[in-house]
Structures are given as C-alpha cells and as structure tokens.
Amino acid sequence: MSCDKRELEFSVFIINKLSDYLKKPASEIYKILSETNILDDYIIKCYDVLHTLGNEYLMEDITELIKERGIKL
To answer: Which domain of life is it from (predicted)?
Structure first.
C-alpha cells in the first residue's frame, strides 16, 4: 500500500511511541506491525481517524490489536 508523507510520518511516530511504550526496539515493533498487516491495514488505512486520537489511547488500542493477532508482547 502506498502512503503519502503525512501517513508515513504518522507511521514512524506510532512505531517510535510503541517502542517506548512496550520497551522494545523500533525495528522489532516495525516487524510486528508489518507481519500482522497492522501497519498497512490499520495504521495507514485509518490514518484520518487515528491521527486525531490521544497517544495513550493509540498505544493501548494498537497493543490490544497486536495481541488479538496472536503476538505475545
């Protein structure tokens, strides 16, 4: 899926915030989000809604989605 500059910047922001939130390397977070399609199918696809939400909510929401996809954190 292609994305524009805003979506790319938001994706990088989410990866770095999740890295801090979960205390895992950003490269590992990127791998998890890519392999579970959360990056393309949720973060980029739903950018218009997600970028209006608070950081804490986003971290909890995406963490829960990762767990629902069967990834242990």
So the answer is: Bacteria
CA distance 38 to 60: 14
DSSP states of 5-73: HHHHHHHHHHHHHHHHHHT--HHHHHHHHHHTTHIIIIIITTHHHHTTS-HHHHHHHHHHHHHHTT---
Backbone angles phi, psi at 69, to 5 degrees: -85, 5
1 near 38, Cβ under 8 Å? no
pTM of the model as a whole: 0.91
Give domain limits for the chain.
5-66
Q: Is the pLDDT of residue 49 over 60?
A: yes
Q: Give the contacts of 35 (CB within 8 A, at least 6 positions apart).
A: none
